[in-house]
Amino acid sequence: MYFKENVSIVYHELLKEVGELEIPNEEFVDCRNCSLCSHQSLIRFNTKCCDYQPSLTNFITGSILSDFSGDLATGSQLVLDRIHKKLGVTPFGILPSSNYNKAFQLSRDEEALVTQEQTTALKCSFLKNGNCTVYKYRSDICGLHQCSSVSLDHGLAFWEKAKRLNLYLDKHLSLLVAKKMGIPDPINIPKELKSLSSLIETESGKIDENKYKKVWGDWNNKEVAFYKECSSIFQSLGVKELKVELGQNFEKLQTSLAASAVPFNSHISPDFLIFNEEKWKKSSNYKLLTPIMLMHLRLFNGKSKTVDVVKKAAFMQLGLNKIMTELMAEDCLSQKIN
User: Helical H runs in the chain?
Assistant: First the structure.
C-alpha cells in the first residue's frame, strides 16, 4: 500500500513524495473487526479507537461542506451540527473543547481506571454506526493511528512520525489560511491546534458569547461561508508556495518519515513464529512475565499464525508489540528454534 492512502485527500499533492512511499499492509489491525471492541464488556465497544475528537482545520471543514458527493452527506450534516452548537468552532477549525481535552488526557492516564461510560462520552462526533462519516477528509491523527503493527516497534515509530507531520501541517496551514481570511494569529500560539478552542470559552469551558463574537469578527454567524472560503483559498495555493510557508521543518519531517519507512518495510513479522522460552530465561534481558502474557507467547508455536496470536492478545487487552520486539532482538522469538 502507499502512505497517501492514510492521509486526507487535501494533502495528496503537498505530500506527493512521501505519499508514494510503499509501506506494509497493517494486517494486525482490522478496524472493521476490531478485537478491542468485539465484545460489549470492553471499554471501547461503542467507540472503537474513536474515543478521540480530531481537530478539523478550517480548510478541511470547508472542503467537507463543499463536497456534495453522497458519501459525505452524513458527515456534512454532523459538521453543520457542530457549527450550530458553537463549542470548539473557531476560525482555525472545528476543535475539541477544553473540557473534552482534559477528559481525554485523563482517559489516557495509565493509572486511571477508565470505564466504558467514559470512553463513550469521548466518542468522536463524526462517528456514526461505527464508521467515520468524513473519512475522505480525515485529518489530525485519524488514519495514522495504529494500535499495533506488523513491524512491531519499527512500524509504530513510522506512524508516530507520520502523526507529527500531519499535525504540523494542520496547525501551520490553518493559521496561514485564517490569516489570508483576515484573522490574525492568536497572541500565544499553542503547541497544538486543539488548544485554540480556549479562545472562545469561559474559564469553566463553556461558550463565551463575547469572546466568540470577538474572535469571529465580521464572520460571526457566517461560519459556514467562512469555512467554504477557506477551502477555496487553500486550493488556490500552489505546492511551491505552501512549502515556502511551511519552511525547513516540513522538509525535515518528511525526510525523517521516509527514513523510518526503511526499517518499517524490512522488519515485517513472519507469518509463523516460535517462542523459545528456555532461551528467553537465559537471556540478559530476561524478566518475569505475567501468566496471561506467558500464555499468549506460548501460542507462538510455529503452527498458529502470528496475526491470529496478536489479535487474540488484543482481545485480552494485551499489547504484544514491545515484548515481541524485545524477544525478536534476543532471537527468542523467531521462525525456528536455534
Answer: 16-19, 58-66, 73-85, 98-107, 116-121, 152-180, 209-216, 223-236, 239-266, 277-281, 291-297, 306-315, 321-329
